[in-house]
# Entry
Amino acid sequence: MQWSTLVATAVGTVLGVLATLVADHVRWRHDRSERERDTLLTASTEYLTALATARDAFSRAEASPGLVGKGHVALGEHSVYAAQQRLELVAQRALAEKAGRATLTVLDFYDVVVAGYDANSHEYVDAWRTCRQARSALIEEMRNVMRRG
# Structure
């Protein structure tokens, strides 16, 4: 047997093994990226659902000036904080910060409603608009993160 045949066989084997390892690594990274994206999508959806549920419930709340500043309790009852914490565990900093801002706008909205401002008041409309804008900015950031992968 010639040495060139042995060397060619060895090089071919090494290249084959390396190609398989590279392909497996690429597949693993892709699968991991998909799992991370799915986890982020789930956490984002849970957070947005909890936040919307709380905001909608707050829009129907009765005026009770003694509850101003106690929206954090109401948010807890709607699982907003739990959903936000799950999102913060899997999200990038910019996304987590926008989620925090969205939560704060809903707290402000709660204070406006329980302070007794009705849906026709300037304060109510401004608070509602601020919630919608924060939510829109958050959703846009979520979409950007999902696209970037």
